[in-house]
Write a structure and sequence with these properties.
single chain; two-stranded antiparallel ribbon; two-stranded parallel ribbon; 7 helices
C-alpha cells in the first residue's frame, strides 16, 4: 500500500512544499547559470522512467553549452566541461532542484532508481530484465547511497532491483538519511579513474 498509494501522494505534497520553500534560491540559481555561461539555464534531457517509458528530466545546467552528450563515465576529464558554477551546483546537488517539478508531474519520486538516458543502455536493459523499472525513478536511490558513480552498471541494476522488490517507508527514510550524509561529504559525485 505504501509504494502504490501513500508514497505518490507524499512525493507530490513534499515536492510542492519544497518548490515553494526553495523558490527564491531556484530563481537565483536560474539567473546565475544564465548569466555566467552560454546556453539555457535548465538542462532538459529525455530519460527512461517507470516501465522504461521516456519523459523529459529537468536539471540546472552544469556543463558548458558545447559539451558532448555522453554518460559521465565516458568523459576523459569531466571537469574540463563543467562551468565554475556548475561544479558547485553538482557538488552540492543543487543542480537537482528542478526535478521537484518532475515529481510534481508524476514522472519521478524522491526515492527510486535514477532516471537514465539512452547513453546508459546497459543499465536500462538490466533493469528491464530484473523488473527494477516497475517503480518510478528517483532523485536518489539505493545505488546512489551505495557508490553512486563509483559502482559498475551491474551493481547499479542489482541495487535498483533490490529497491523495487522492497519499497517501504523505513527503507526510504534510510536512503534519505544516507543521501544527506553523502551530499554533505560530497562522496561519489565523480567516477574515479
Amino acid at each position: 500500500m505504501y509504494g502504490k498509494v501513500i508514497k505518490p501522494i507524499l512525493d507530490k505534497v513534499m515536492a510542492l512544499i519544497l518548490i515553494v520553500a526553495f523558490s527564491i534560491p531556484m530563481v537565483l540559481i536560474f539567473i546565475s547559470v544564465k548569466m555566467s555561461s552560454k546556453g539555457p539555464a535548465v538542462f532538459k534531457q529525455k530519460r527512461f522512467g517507470k516501465d522504461t517509458t521516456q519523459f523529459v528530466l529537468y536539471k540546472f545546467r552544469t556543463m558548458t553549452y558545447e559539451a558532448p552528450i555522453l554518460a559521465n563515465r565516458e568523459f576523459d576529464n569531466l571537469n574540463t566541461y563543467l562551468t565554475p558554477l556548475g561544479k558547485i551546483l553538482r557538488e552540492s546537488s543543487l543542480d537537482e532542484l528542478p526535478q521537484l517539478f518532475n515529481i510534481l508531474l508524476g514522472h519521478m519520486s524522491f526515492i527510486g532508481p535514477r532516471p537514465l538516458a539512452e547513453t546508459d543502455k546497459t543499465v536500462i536493459d538490466l533493469r528491464q530484465k530484473s523488473g527494477a523499472d516497475r517503480v518510478l525513478p528517483g532523485i536518489t536511490g539505493l545505488a546512489q547511497v551505495n557508490g553512486r558513480n563509483q559502482i559498475s552498471d551491474e551493481n547499479k541494476a542489482e541495487l535498483d532491483s533490490q529497491y523495487a522488490d522492497s519499497v517501504s517507508f523505513v527503507l526510504d527514510m534510510q536512503i534519505i538519511i544516507l543521501t544527506l550524509t553523502k551530499v554533505f561529504r560530497k562522496e561519489g559525485i565523480y567516477k574515479e579513474r
